[in-house]
Design goal:
Strand order of the largest sheet: 2-1-4-3-5-6
Structural class: alpha/beta
Number of strands: 6
Oligomer: single chain
Order of helices and strands: EEHEHEHEHE
Largest sheet: 6 strands, mixed
Shape: globular
Distance between the termini: 35 Å
Radius of gyration: 14 Å
Helix content: 25-40%
């Protein structure tokens, strides 16, 4: 199993969405992977907390398959805590854009892409998948847990 960590943030708590970049793992190795499973945390997780939790979760998932696990960190939190939820949708949407852009530029065109998310991370996933599908990228599986997305986000457009 190969483990990668991708970040769209530049602060441990809050901060702006920044262009996605690998912060753990080799970029050449990333480009060679035939299967990539992206793990996206939900709302109100600091960078450190999300990194630790996703690494643990990815290790458990990797024992069941041989995918390369990619933890995705995005700034879906704020120093005010839960009070910021109504405004985090914009960061989720911007993170989705950055995640899709990174995948389009850096992953193999024929890579089998899979996504697992929780809470508001589902909005990141659905936004990224929408962009990827429009670029004819292969998304084979999506697992949304306690998804904080609109009820029609899975509807055909």
């Amino acid at each position: 199993m190969h483990a990668f960590e991708l970040s769209c943030r530049n602060q441990n708590v809050g901060g702006p969405v920044v262009p996605a970049r690998l912060i753990r793992g080799d970029s050449v190795e990333f480009q060679l992977r035939e299967q990539l499973t992206f793990l996206v945390h939900g709302y109100n997780n600091s960078e450190k907390k999300a990194s630790t939790a996703l690494a643990r979760f990815g290790a458990k998932l990797s024992s069941a398959n041989s995918d390369s696990m990619v933890s995705v960190l995005w700034p879906g939190d704020h120093w005010t805590g839960a009070a910021s939820f109504p405004w985090e949708g914009r960061d989720a949407d911007l993170s989705a854009y950055e995640l899709a852009k990174f995948i389009i530029v850096n992953a193999r065109e024929d890579a089998d892409l899979r996504f697992v998310s929780h809470s508001l991370g589902a909005r990141v996933v659905m936004g990224a998948v929408d962009r990827l599908v429009r670029r004819n990228r292969r998304v084979s599986q999506i697992c949304l847990m306690a998804a904080a997305v609109d009820a029609d986000s899975l509807a055909a457009s």
